[in-house]
């Protein structure tokens, strides 16, 4: 439990009591990544849906995504921005890593963050207005599942960095525990309410996101031959928005043809 609390403090801004010390085996807490996603999903859903009941779906979607940003401290968005500034500057590896360390916001970062937030708000609006609350809850779970996959399959691009606490150190058992927790959270509601469409759509989307995550990792390897903490943040954000898009598409197609 102590490792989970420390991980929650590490990945979010949720106020929890922890020593704050990261020991040499902190990577073993990776098994709880999906559990962190579940906790975040609960908060996002409570604030977003509650607000939508008073002010409507548009404001509810804005509050949902604002809660997402606030509770993660913008950590993953910062990683997304740094990743797009660095990787798509088309420089050599050392220069790319220098750019990613630079705290200044470049054009690529600004555009990537802006476009992603707009997509998230638009999709959250659709989910809230049509009552697809499960998808909103599962969004951060998918993000954390993609992150732990990258940590498990990935290798580091540099000697030091926050991401090195996990990248290349996550064991197979810890990865599959995290994956199992995430998938269980995604299919359990289907079993409880006996609506198996949710489980089928979710499992399909998880497979798609896993494939896309591995493909993006290979793309990154061709540029800097490894991953950084910033890239983990980018993977988390991209997985979340892809999940929302694919889940909505899945529900729409299910209603049309099945």
From TrEMBL:
GO terms, molecular function: adenosylcobinamide-GDP ribazoletransferase activity; cobalamin 5'-phosphate synthase activity
Keywords: Cell membrane, Cobalamin biosynthesis, Magnesium, Membrane, Transferase, Transmembrane, Transmembrane helix
One GO cellular component term noted in the UniProt record for this chain: plasma membrane
The enzyme's E.C. designation: 2.7.8.26
Superkingdom of origin: Bacteria
Localisation per UniProt entry: Cell membrane
Stored NCBIfam families: cobS
Role: Joins adenosylcobinamide-GDP and alpha-ribazole to generate adenosylcobalamin (Ado-cobalamin). Also synthesizes adenosylcobalamin 5'-phosphate from adenosylcobinamide-GDP and alpha-ribazole 5'-phosphate.
Name this protein carries in UniProt: Adenosylcobinamide-GDP ribazoletransferase
Species the sequence originates in: Acetoanaerobium sticklandii (strain ATCC 12662 / DSM 519 / JCM 1433 / CCUG 9281 / NCIMB 10654 / HF) (Clostridium sticklandii)
């Amino acid at each position: 439990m102590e490792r989970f609390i420390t991980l929650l403090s590490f990945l979010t801004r949720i106020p929890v009591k922890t020593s704050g010390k990261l020991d040499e085996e902190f990577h073993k807490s990776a098994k709880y990544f999906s559990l962190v996603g579940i906790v975040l999903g609960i908060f996002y859903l409570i604030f977003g849906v509650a607000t939508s009941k008073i002010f409507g779906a548009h404001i509810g979607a804005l509050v949902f995504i604002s809660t997402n940003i606030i509770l993660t401290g913008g950590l993953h968005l910062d990683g997304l921005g740094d990743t797009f500034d660095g990787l798509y500057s088309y420089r050599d590896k050392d220069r790319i890593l220098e750019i990613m360390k630079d705290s200044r916001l470049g054009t690529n970062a600004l555009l990537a963050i802006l476009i992603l937030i707009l997509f998230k708000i638009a999709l959250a609006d659709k989910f809230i207005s049509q009552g697809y609350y499960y998808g909103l809850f599962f969004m951060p779970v998918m993000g954390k599942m993609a992150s732990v996959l990258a940590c498990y399959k990935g290798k580091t691009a540099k000697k030091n960095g926050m991401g090195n606490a996990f990248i290349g150190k996550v064991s197979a058992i810890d990865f599959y525990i995290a994956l199992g927790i995430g998938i269980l959270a995604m299919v359990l509601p289907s079993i409880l309410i006996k609506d198996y469409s949710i489980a089928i759509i979710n499992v399909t989307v998880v497979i798609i996101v896993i494939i896309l995550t591995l493909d993006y990792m290979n793309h990154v390897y061709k540029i800097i031959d490894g991953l950084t903490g910033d890239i983990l943040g980018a993977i988390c954000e991209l997985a979340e928005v892809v999940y929302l898009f694919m889940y909505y598409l899945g529900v729409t197609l299910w209603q049309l043809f099945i």
